[in-house]
Structures are given as C-alpha cells and as structure tokens.
Predict the structure.
Amino acid sequence: MLFVEGQRPRGVYVLCQGRAKVSIASAEGKTLVLRIAQPGELLGMNATLTGEPYGATVETLERCRIDFIAREDVLKLLDRDKRACLGVVHALSRKLRGVVEHTRLLFLSQSASEKVARLLVRWCDDHGKRTAQGIRIESGLTHEEMAQMICASRETVTRVLGQFKRKGIVSLADKAIFVRNRKALESLACR
C-alpha cells in the first residue's frame, strides 16, 4: 500500500517498474478501481500540489520499484524548473484524458458486455502485447477487481468473459487474457 484515500500527502511516488491499482471507496465499503498505473506514472501528484488529502488508494499489484519525492522538494522543483512544470502539466493532462475515457466506459456503455469489451480494447491499446495466441493482456486483476472497474458484479464479468471465450473472441490462460479477435471485440465495444 503506497497511500490511502484521505491520508495527508507526504509527496509523489514515481512508479519506475511494476503496476499499481488506483481505487476509491464509498463509506459503505464499495470499491471502484479507477485504473492500473503503469511504469512512468506519478502517483499522488494532485494531493501533493494542493495539500489536500490523497483522493484515492494506491496499492501495488506486483513487485515494483518506486521512487519517492517529498512534497517540499516537489514544490521547490516546480518553482524553479519550467520543464518540470511542463512535465507535470502533461502528466496531469494524460490522467484527465484517462478519467474521461473511464467515465465514457462507465456511463455511456449500454450493457455489461459493452463495458467489458471497452475495458479489454483499452487494455489492448495501453499494454497489450502481440503474440501468436492473440493480444496478451496481463491485467493482474481478479474478476472481482475487473468488476470494480466497470461497476458490475464479479459474476457478470465471469459470465461475459465466458461468452467471449465461447465466441472465440478471447481465451484465458496463465493469469492472462488473450484477445483472439480484436475486430469482434471492437464491434461489441461500439454498440
């Protein structure tokens, strides 16, 4: 666990290697996974800049290498280095674009199949690797965590992935999802 939603910001975490899950929770304990952070991402930048509590919880999904920059050092650097400021602006802009895409996935999808398809297409684009079996996606997430990303139940995600598997759109193996028919997946994502 790098930091918890509501915790006072100590600084920025730079994810150098590995992946981390970024999530928020309701007072009732319901969790929404916002995204999977990839190497190169700055975690906790918003809170570090504003001085307000972290707005999300971040926990690693695998062995990671993480650098930490204390809040005071971040603010000093941004005060004296125009290129650093521009880098932060670009990072925050990419994060905002991701929020818009996630909002589209959650609120403009008509069905659970469409939500799962959109999520898988996005993962193909973000970190899929072409293999002989199709595009390999290693999300590192359980069906429950995938469900938390799209506001569905674990059972729904399992059922939809099973349907996709029977149609030859995906196959599941070695904690990975292989997208075997991207065009069919894209057509389901665009309904």
